[in-house]
Design brief:
alpha+beta, GMP Synthetase, Chain A, domain 3, 2 helices, about 45% helix, about 30% strand
């Protein structure tokens, strides 16, 4: 499952990098994907929306086993 998540994040990453941010996979445990938002995303007030409505939505669409995405 880690490889599937990494591949999906690689598709999302260019959009984040275009705004000066990035996302790093920390771990996947029982369907919960733990990520770290870095760069401009790390301190952005819209980071929660990016995480839930962007990253989590896309990962759930591409990988049905994903239950949630959380920032650590």
């Amino acid at each position: 499952m880690n490889e599937k998540v990494k591949a999906a994040l690689d598709k999302i990453r260019p959009a984040l990098q275009a705004d000066g941010g990035d996302v790093e996979l920390v771990d996947v445990v029982n369907g919960t994907v733990k990520v770290k938002l870095t760069g401009a995303c790390g301190g952005c007030p819209m980071a929660t929306m990016t995480l839930k409505r962007g990253i989590e939505r896309i990962l759930k669409e591409q990988i049905p086993e994903v239950k949630e995405v959380v920032a650590v």
